[in-house]
Amino acid sequence: MVANIADLITSQFNIIARHMTDHCLDGKSDSLQRQPDSTESGISSAIKDCYSPHNFSQSNYSGDRQSQSGKSETGHLDIPDVFKQLNNNDHMQHHHDHKGHSHVEGHGHHWRHQTTQPSDISTPIIDTTPPITDKPPTVSDGSHHIVGADKLPVGALRQTLSVLDENPTNLSVDYLKSLKAEGISGVRDKYQLPNDRLLNPSELAFLDRDYAAAREAGMPMVTIFSYTQQAGGADAPADLVKAQLAQLAPVLSKNEDTIGAVELGFVGAWGEWNRSTNGNDNNTTLAKDIYDGFSKALPDTPVAFRYVHLVREIFGDNPPANVIMQNDSIGESHGTAWRDKDAGSYNYSGDYEYIVNHNLMTLGENQESGTPAEILKRVQDTNITSMEFWGSVGQAVKSEGMYDDIVAAMRQNALNDGIAF
Fold it and tell me: Would 118 be classed as within a structural domain?
């Protein structure tokens, strides 16, 4: 019996060792040794060697950057010597519904704050501590001015999706210009990240090329990062979220001029902070860490929160000047109480009044139900300045002649905020 258990443990160590060294050595020379000692110390040694800080230098991801003195500077992510979590699953489920950039139709998301993790999803193997702990610059100027709001698209948005680990196709300048010809004011681009590893150089370069195309086309981008487009799909643990954000920060900073807004994203289904398989739905510490990371990388760009209670818990009655809202359920209302407005966007008493009293700028999309009249009412009441129209409700907005009225109301909100467009 003891021998059988020992053999089983040794077998599992071999599986884990092969998985982790294959993952690390992927793309390196095939001549490199891939069979570490099967003992626990041998595995730890192999992992330590493979995942050394040298292998995660900044030059591996975005190229050596030149300092003001002209000398090359290379930074690295802080990678622990030995991973605390080992994953017995060699493969996480990938979503093959969308490859490259495609228009994203609607999704049902009426269930809120469910944090039960499916039994077939195990914790990703990577446990990292990102270098984004520096305090962000002060973003509030003591007035009602919204930092970077002049970059926000005003009016109709178009949503696209790119799954970065499925050989996506970049946005083209011609496509973006064709959207402008349709009257689209900005692209809300969802980037689906791998939920079990750090980003690789090609994925970071892909994002950079998208921003370059948007810049050439003169199309503002609203960026959101997520891990799954399915209810109950696996997202990532907090440490990996922060590590990937640290990788993304240089690309975001380089392209801030074309980023109209960035959404908090990352957590839960669609990056909407609900149904996180890692229990992060109400993780205010993680929300603040993500906000700080974005504020540091993008000091002149609004950061959109999905849920009001996170803003209230983090900032109290003084939301910073770069905080705006993102509402994925505009117009799906079933009564007059706060809980009946916009399909559960307001989860606690006082949430709705908070965004109205603070006049928080909001961007978003209509939901699967609701009416054009309800959408117009919400635009007028909650300072919505841009949104995507999709599905049957989006079509009804146009067929019932309400499209121009709603767009005009969003433009009036922007003008009231002092935004020239």
Answer: yes
